[in-house]
Design goal:
With about 150 residues, the protein is an alpha+beta fold. The protein has one domain. It is about 60% helix and about 15% strand. A four-stranded mixed β-sheet has the order 1-2-4-3, sandwiched between helices. A hairpin with a 3-residue loop joins strand 1 and strand 2. The longest helix has about 30 residues. It is globular. It starts with 6 loop residues before the first helix and ends in an 11-residue tail after the last helix. The protein binds zinc ion (ZN). The site of zinc ion (ZN) has 4 residues, from helix 2 and helix 5. Zinc ion (ZN) binds next to helix 2 and helix 5.
Length: about 150
């Protein structure tokens, strides 16, 4: 039950994301399912990615594995934490300086944090994707995970 409290600060972002996922589903979707978010399994298996987390949900390649879903669900947990931080920053900032910026920070905070982490990884001489802290964390948590024990929540 406590996990639904998280939706207090993510729901506005999730509603936008779920609309995007539904639009993608109409054009390139194979299946929709809900597992701590709305996921659209695509008709295709793109070469560049197996899954993309957009918030509470995202896009998964055709015939995705349990390991891929586990990886994406770790990104959902990251999204929940970063979104709370950005929500608090937006509220505190809005108390002193009311404008559109706090709302933009709130709505885009997770993606800005992910992009910033890619830039930092690149500046360290690592690959932006594999070197960013979000991917390092997700890959290390699913390493050797083939039983899917954390898939259903
Ligand atoms: Zn990832």
């Amino acid at each position: 039950m406590k996990k639904y409290i998280i939706y207090l600060w993510t729901l506005p972002i999730d509603l936008i994301i779920w609309l995007i996922i539904l639009i993608v589903y109409l054009y390139a979707g194979r299946k929709l399912h809900y597992n701590n978010g709305l996921w659209c399994e695509l008709n295709v298996r793109p070469k560049r990615f197996a899954g993309i987390t957009l918030g509470h949900g995202g896009l998964l390649c055709k015939d995705f594995s349990a390991t891929i879903l586990h990886h994406e669900l770790i990104h959902v947990e990251q999204y929940e934490a970063i979104s709370l931080l950005c929500c608090l920053i937006a509220i505190l900032t809005g108390l002193f300086y009311w404008s559109l910026y706090p709302i933009i920070i709130y709505l885009t905070g997770f993606y800005i944090a992910y992009g910033a982490s890619c830039i930092v990884a690149w500046l360290r001489g690592e690959k932006p994707y594999y070197g960013n802290i979000f991917e390092e964390s997700a890959y290390s948590q699913v390493k050797g995970d083939n039983d899917g024990k954390r898939i259903e929540r």
